[in-house]
Specification:
Oligomer: single chain
Radius of gyration: 20 Å
Largest sheet: none
Structural class: mainly alpha
Length: 255
């Protein structure tokens, strides 16, 4: 079974404008992962693997990354970072395979979001476990709390479409998310977005930061750097839960 060429596959699986989506593509995908994922997708076209099966494997990779991160030692942080990269690779490839095979579905979209929820939570919980000297302690609690905050942020976003659907409205446009009733709130959102502080709880960034702090801890002989990172994640998650809710209520998404 010869299958498509990489060039043919790219035209369909990575259509023009796809990587430039405002909210749909992670910077790592644009920077390097889409250059790699198309070859994985090309290999998958020669098999009977379905897009949803790839999504399940993606989710497992993300969860295992959190489990591995919870283990002590620099090697665990390094392996967790690699597993998160595998998660990202499959997150790119499952959609590409779905577009090529025409097997796009609501189930696929749902599973993809479930995978993102589980991975984000798993990595944060793993970081909290890693930072704990005695299990459980307050660092364990902070990791779980940060994971809950990260999930609530995603829930706040998803509930916009739920509320609109129950009101008989279509999904909110991207433009409505940046249109505020108050000019001051709009300016504040732009300033906070420019800092990119929200990315600290996302798996890609967090796994790399956890690896960096693991290196520092290995040199220092303690867990101080990991614990500082964990506290920063907790604070960032709490701030985002509140600010994101205010942002939604002040925007025109629910109008």
């Amino acid at each position: 079974m010869s299958g498509p060429s990489v060039a043919e596959l790219r035209r369909v699986a990575q259509p023009a404008g796809h990587l430039e989506r405002r909210n749909g593509e992670h910077w790592a995908g644009v920077l390097y992962m889409r250059r790699l994922s198309i070859y994985v997708t090309w290999l998958m076209t020669k098999t009977s693997v379905t897009p949803n099966q790839l999504t399940w494997v993606m989710t497992v990779a993300g969860i295992v990354a959190g489990v591995v991160l919870a283990l002590p030692g620099l090697w665990a942080a390094a392996l967790a970072a690699v597993l998160v990269q595998v998660y990202l690779l499959l997150d790119c490839s499952d959609g590409e395979l779905a577009r090529w095979t025409g097997q796009t579905s609501l189930a696929g979209v749902y599973l993809d979001r479930v995978g993102a929820y589980f991975t984000e939570a798993a990595v944060l919980v793993g970081l909290g476990w890693r930072a704990s000297a005695v299990l459980p302690d307050w660092y364990t609690v902070l990791g779980v709390a940060a994971a809950l905050g990260a999930i609530l942020i995603k829930v706040e976003t998803d509930l916009v479409d739920v509320a609109r659907a129950k009101g008989g409205l279509s999904a909110a446009s991207e433009a409505s998310g940046v249109q505020f009733r108050s000019g001051l709130l709009g300016l504040g959102r732009k300033v906070l977005s420019a800092t990119k502080f929200h990315r600290i709880v996302q798996p890609i960034e967090l796994s790399l930061l956890a690896l960096a702090t693991a290196v520092i801890d290995a040199v220092a002989g303690d867990l101080t750097a990991t614990r500082v990172l964990l506290v920063a994640c907790f604070v960032a998650a709490c701030l985002q839960v509140v600010l994101h809710l205010v942002s939604i209520m002040a925007s025109r998404r629910l109008a």
